[in-house]
Phosphonate ABC transporter ATP-binding protein
Amino acid sequence: MIEFKDLSLVYPNGTQGLKDINVTINEGEFVVIVGLSGAGKSTFIRSINRLVSPTDGELNIDGDNILKYNPKQLRKLRTEVGMIFQQHNLVKRSTVMKNVIAGRLGYTSTFKSMFNLYPKKDLSLAYESLKRVNIGDKVHARADQLSGGQQQRVSIARVLTQQPKVILADEPVASLDPPTSHQVMTYLKQINKEDNITTIVNLHFIDMAMEYADRIIGMREGQVVFDGPASQVSEST
Ligand code: ADP
Ligand code: ADP
């Protein structure tokens, strides 16, 4: 369970990124955050793995206030809370397999990857993850040889290989065409349901949010202005 309690974030330049957020997200929920550019969606999501640091309030994950975490606890948090970005953040010249296995703890170090010193268990986990997003045939391809949609599927496989409790996706389909966007959203939703991984996604488009979300959180100027099931959105807007 992720609990925002009077959570606020003021950036060093004085911009209020989040203001008095009170939201509880339950295990296994598929939540979509919507709002205009600058509404605070990205700041909301990045607070949950502490890529940004809220300045006031509490952010509890399973009862632990992550604002109090030390660097070691933060490293652990980031293995449990996986992240997918708009620009997939893959190592372009590296193979798909190398990118995905980097999702495993400790393989960000170049030494092991240079010599392909991966435990069999991790390799099979990575391969299984790639198969789940239907891209198992590309293990040896270089990341930059794939299309945008394929790269985003690889980043889903990478996050899956991390075996996270929570997946955060910051505008994961913003640079993809509509059919590819739907494909990526379908995989995210499928994984959420099959593995019961709490999933929080930022989207620009309300129609796509309504199609996939269990619950929609609407943001404006750093505040939550709507929070409810997708079916209630049209009534209130
Ligand atoms: P969204 O994801 O909805 O576009 P953001 O969370 O990125 O919104 O931004 C919320 C507000 O915080 C905006 O006014 C934005 O300009 C500001 N902001 C975001 N990141 C920073 C930063 N690193 N420093 C200062 N202001 C920031
Ligand atoms: P996003 O679409 O994820 O919100 P942006 O394009 O708004 O990203 O911002 C890109 C980067 O610039 C982010 O790291 C964000 O934190 C930072 N940023 C955004 N707005 C500001 C701002 N007003 N001042 C300083 N940094 C900002």
Q: What stands out?
A: The longest helix spans residues 178-195. The CA atoms of residues 135 and 150 lie 7 Å apart.
